[in-house]
Here is the input.
Amino acid sequence: MQSLESLRRGYGALLTLCGLIAGALTFAVMCLVVANALLRYGFNTPVAGTLELTESALPLMIFLSLALTQFRGGHIKVVLATQHMPPALARAAEVLAMTLGAALFAWAAYAGWLMAMKSLAMGELERGSIRFPLWPVKFAVFLGLALLAFQFLLDAVYCALGGALSDPEEVLE
Here is the structure.
């Protein structure tokens, strides 16, 4: 159990780094949108490619932070049925939910991988006022889904071995 907890802490540090990247991208997009608005309405000179860049940054901001949200226990959790179950049955239901989540997001990550590989193979480009390759964005979607699938798997194993997922701050200490 000790090695699993240190694995979760180390993985949490990686997820925190991904969250920081997503946060920095969010700040950069905000600055770009503000600059675009000021230049457009103040000087009639908009920033070229603002739409394309913000469109491409959104999947990065979302998918790079999904696993961190799961790690910290921030996703919506419905406990209507499990709050009335005996503790052992509630734990089994939680392990089942985490296992199903891992399977679902592993499948989604696989589909994301295929999509990213296809985009890379065909040299897919963003078309608009600026052009840039789309495959890095699609690989980031795959990465975010894979990180989330692994986090669900870690949570399932941790919960099955008796760990409590209800207080995520303990994991960070």
